[in-house]
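Hi everyone, sorry if this is the wrong subforum. Our group has a chain we'd like a structural model of before ordering constructs, and none of us has done structure prediction before. Sequence below.
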Amino acid sequence: MQANRIITADDLRQFTGTANWHRHGIVRGVLFTDGAKFLADHAGAYWLLDEIAFGQRQRKVAVEGFQLWRLSVDLGKKAGALACEDGDEKTVYRKLVPYTDFPLAEIVLYFVDGVILLPSEY
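Answer:
Right subforum, don't worry. Here is the predicted structure as tokens:
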């Protein structure tokens, strides 16, 4: 599906659970929910799901049972930063994103028990 890049925070709040589990194409042990798939489809953000899945290879990330992943975007500069927090507001991983056309200034995703999900799906 081609991303239409028209997505709002309200679009994402409609997801309060998932009917389907989607397996990550490369990191087969990682699943994601319908809400995360909607985000990836409509914001062209499969790269973000990849970053979270690949981030599990970092020991300091993988040891965290609950992970909060925050993408912050400067929409004017089309650049941002991706950070993984441990749930107690301690950053355990951070990566600069030199270019992104992600349409929102910020998005938060959780990674819990091998699953990437929206906060409203938790």
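For your construct planning: The longest helix spans residues 34-43. The CA atoms of residues 28 and 53 lie 9 Å apart.
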